[in-house]
TrEMBL record:
<dbReference type="InterPro" id="IPR025893">
    <property type="entry name" value="Tocopherol_cyclase"/>
</dbReference>
<dbReference type="Pfam" id="PF14249">
    <property type="entry name" value="Tocopherol_cycl"/>
</dbReference>
<dbReference type="GO" id="GO:0009976">
    <property type="term" value="F:tocopherol cyclase activity"/>
</dbReference>
<protein>
    <submittedName>
        <fullName>Tocopherol cyclase</fullName>
    </submittedName>
</protein>
Length: 377
C-alpha cells in the first residue's frame, strides 16, 4: 500500500542486529550524458554492517587475516556504479566510528566525510584505482570513479504492512526486512562517472528508493520495479503508476517461508497489492527466474481475491552486474546475484469480479526496470 512511514527508514541496527546485522539505503535512477545525450542507469547505496563490532578502521570480512582471526565485518560501505555497457560497481569503506547515523524531524541521516544521505539529498565520492582494486579483492569491486550531488523527491511508497511494523521490528522477527519509501521517486542533480558528467532530471530519472535490513539475506533473491510504464490500452505513458516486486524465501522466527514475494502495483492512483503476510487476501504466487546464455528472465504471477498481476521481464547479462555483498557473519554466500537497471518487459493487470471472468484493466510495456535475481552458490 502507498503509505509513507519515515520511521521504517530509520537506522535499525540495535539489539542483536548491532552485532550481527546490516542496514542499507538503496537508490537507482537514470541520467543523461551532458555531451552525448546518452542515457545511463546509476545506483547509489549506503550499506552499514555490525556497528557494535566497529574498530578504528573498517573491517572487511573477505580479508583472509580477518577470517582466520574470527573478525566479522563492520563498516559503512558507500556503494555506487552504473549498468549498461561496461557495468561497474565501486565500493568505499569507512569505519563506523567515523560515521554519524541517526534521525531527526526530517527523517534518517548518514554522514561520513564527503558522503551523506537523507530523505531529500545524496552526496558522495568514490574512487578506486585499478591497482587498488587488484590488490584488495576483499573490497569486492571494480576500479573507477563516481561523485554525485542528487536531490530526491519520493512520490509513492510501498509499505508492506505489519510485517515490518514496530512490534515485529522490536522482536527482530524476520531475518530480512524491506521498506520502499520511494518506489516511485524523482531525482535531479549531477553525477561525474569516470570523468564524464551526467545530468539527472526529474522527468527522465525513473527513480526508485528502498531499504533492507536484518541479520542475513534471502535466497532466492528476487526484485523487479519500474515507473517507466506505457499503457497498451490507451497508448500513453502512465504518469501516476509504478510496480515493485521483491522477496524470495523469507524467514520469520527462524522458519523459512518458501517462495514468497511481496508486490504492489500502484496503477494510476490505486493500489493493487499482493502480500502473502495479509493472509485474508488469499494471496498466491508463482514465479520462475532463469539464466540463459545472454539474459536473465523473470516470470511472476500473483493473485488475490481482488486482482491478478502477471509480470514478464528480461535483461541482457552484458548490461548487468554480479553484485557483491558479504553477510554480517562474514560469509559471502551470494556469488551469482545478478543486478540490473535496464530491464524491459510487460505487466498485465486484471480486476476480479464475483461470478464473472477477471477484467483485464491494462497491459503495460515497462522499461528501465530495476531487476535482481540470484541464489546462494
Amino acid at each position: 500500500m502507498n503509505k509513507s512511514d519515515l520511521k521504517r527508514n530509520y537506522w535499525m541496527l540495535d539489539g542483536r542486529f548491532a552485532r550481527k546485522g546490516y542496514d542499507w539505503w538503496w537508490h537507482n535512477f537514470t541520467a543523461v550524458n551532458e555531451k552525448t545525450g546518452e542515457e545511463r542507469a546509476f545506483f547509489i547505496e549506503y550499506f552499514t554492517c555490525n556497528p557494535a563490532l566497529g574498530e578504528a578502521e573498517p573491517v572487511c570480512g573477505q580479508l583472509t587475516a580477518n577470517q582466520e582471526a574470527g573478525r566479522r565485518p563492520s563498516y559503512l560501505m558507500v556503494k555506487c556504479g552504473w549498468w549498461g555497457e561496461e557495468a561497474t560497481q565501486l565500493h568505499r569503506f569507512i569505519a563506523l566510528r567515523n560515521v554519524s547515523i541517526g534521525h531527526d524531524a526530517n527523517g534518517y541521516f548518514v554522514k561520513a566525510e564527503d558522503c551523506s544521505a537523507c530523505e531529500k539529498r545524496l552526496t558522495g565520492n568514490v574512487e578506486v584505482s585499478p591497482e587498488d582494486a587488484a590488490a584488495h579483492p576483499e573490497w569486492m569491486c571494480n576500479s573507477g570513479s563516481m561523485s554525485w550531488d542528487i536531490a530526491v523527491d519520493k512520490k509513492v511508497a510501498f509499505n508492506v504492512g505489519y510485517g515490518a511494523g514496530s512490534l515485529f521490528r522490536k522482536l527482530k522477527a524476520f531475518e530480512m526486512y524491506w521498506h520502499a519509501e520511494g518506489m516511485k521517486s524523482l531525482y535531479s542533480g549531477t553525477i561525474t562517472a569516470n570523468g564524464e558528467k551526467y545530468i539527472v532530471t526529474n522527468e527522465r530519472s525513473f527513480g526508485y528508493a528502498d531499504k533492507n535490513w536484518g541479520a542475513d539475506f534471502t535466497s532466492p533473491w528476487v526484485w523487479l520495479s519500474s515507473c517507466d510504464l506505457v499503457s497498451k490500452k490507451i497508448g500513453k505513458r502512465l504518469e501516476d503508476s509504478v510496480f515493485d516486486i521483491g522477496g524470495g524465501r523469507p524467514k520469520a522466527f527462524g522458519i523459512a517461508l518458501n517462495r514468497k514475494l511481496l508486490s504492489d502495483f500502484w496503477y494510476e492512483g490505486k493500489s493493487y497489492e499482493f502480500n502473502f503476510s495479509k493472509f485474508w487476501t488469499l494471496c498466491r504466487t508463482k514465479f520462475d527466474c532463469k539464466e540463459t546464455e545472454d539474459k536473465i528472465i523473470w516470470y511472476v504471477r500473483q493473485e488475490t481475491t481482488k486482482a491478478i498481476m502477471e509480470t514478464q521481464v528480461e535483461c541482457d547479462k552484458s548490461k548487468m552486474l554480479l553484485v557483491n555483498y558479504e553477510s554480517p557473519d562474514g560469509v559471502k554466500r551470494h556469488n551469482r546475484l545478478w543486478n540490473g537497471g535496464t530491464g524491459s518487459g510487460t505487466v498485465k493487470l486484471w480486476k476480479k469480479h464475483c461470478f464473472h471472468k477477471p477484467e483485464l484493466l491494462d497491459e503495460i510495456e515497462a522499461g528501465h526496470i530495476g531487476c535482481e535475481w540470484g541464489e546462494y552458490c
